[in-house]
């Protein structure tokens, strides 16, 4: 599954653009949307303050980040016209994507510092319960995916066709080889998520602890340090394979596929630009 994730992330850049006015803000690598009301029943002054902070976060994102995404997509659209796409180019783009994501993490972290200590015991319990439920859903999804690898491969084909149009036999073979070479078991990633949730739970329940602020900062801005060495190596290997795959696919793109991909990216670029315009002061 990680091979498919990397392919989709690098090809579509949806991890950083969102590309809709309902952009989801997420707690670090846990994919917890920055919408406490989805997980916790809020009321009174806390609800009002959280709502105001989310509005301010959207304002910051629209004014400062959407223009960055727009310019980034402009570069990608132009890049497709090149006869070759180098590994170095893709690495640069992947680092830029991480920088976008890191900027968002840094903006969210003060909000976590401000509001997590103010949750009641009941709200804390509700948040922890729902995060555990969500993690259990991920475990079940991983089991189902491992039980039906053909379905996962079909999803990879579908993702590629959404962005490129109809695939050639050679392109399908490339995707299949890359899929078969990648680690599909997400157990190591889920174990990392469990470690994150364990530390998060311990931190949430001790808001007056001396290390509360430091722990929240780590959880929000640098949770990768909770990854095992095996997971770090696995993710890097899958990224290497995906970059190789994208370089090879780019070489095989037909003129029609290039136009299809450029139109798709242009649609996202125009959406991002429109959102940025909405936030111009």
From TrEMBL:
Keywords in alphabetical order = Coiled coil
Q: Which InterPro entries match?
A: UCP028200
Q: State the PROSITE patterns in the record.
A: PROKAR_LIPOPROTEIN
Q: Which residues form a coiled coil?
A: 118-152
Pfam families tied to this protein: DUF6279
Q: What is this protein called?
A: Lipoprotein
- Give the lineage: Bacteria, Pseudomonadati, Pseudomonadota, Gammaproteobacteria, Alteromonadales
């Amino acid at each position: 599954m990680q091979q498919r994730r990397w392919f989709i992330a690098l090809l579509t850049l949806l991890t950083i653009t969102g590309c809709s006015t309902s952009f989801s803000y997420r707690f670090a690598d846990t994919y917890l949307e920055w919408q406490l009301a989805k997980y916790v029943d809020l009321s009174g002054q806390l609800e009002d303050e959280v709502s105001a902070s989310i509005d301010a976060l959207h304002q910051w994102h629209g004014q400062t980040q959407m223009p960055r995404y727009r310019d980034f997509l402009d570069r990608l659209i132009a890049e497709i016209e090149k006869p070759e796409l180098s590994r170095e180019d893709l690495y640069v783009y992947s680092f830029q994507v991480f920088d976008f994501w890191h900027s968002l993490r840094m903006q969210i972290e003060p909000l976590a510092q401000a509001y997590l200590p103010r949750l009641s015991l009941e709200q804390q319990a509700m948040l922890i319960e729902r995060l555990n439920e969500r993690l259990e859903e991920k475990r079940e999804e991983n089991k189902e995916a491992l039980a039906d690898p053909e379905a996962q491969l079909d999803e990879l084909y579908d993702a590629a066709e959404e962005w490129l149009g109809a695939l050639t036999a050679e392109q399908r073979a490339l995707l299949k080889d890359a899929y078969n070479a990648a680690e599909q078991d997400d157990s190591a990633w889920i174990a990392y998520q469990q470690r994150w949730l364990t530390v998060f739970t311990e931190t949430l329940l001790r808001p007056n602890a001396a290390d509360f602020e430091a722990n929240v900062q780590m959880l929000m801005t640098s949770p990768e340090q909770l990854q095992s060495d095996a997971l770090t190596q696995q993710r890097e290997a899958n990224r290497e394979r995906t970059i190789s795959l994208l370089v090879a696919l780019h070489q095989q793109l037909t003129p029609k596929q290039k136009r299809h991909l450029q139109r798709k990216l242009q649609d996202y670029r125009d959406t991002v630009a429109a959102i940025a315009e909405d936030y111009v002061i």
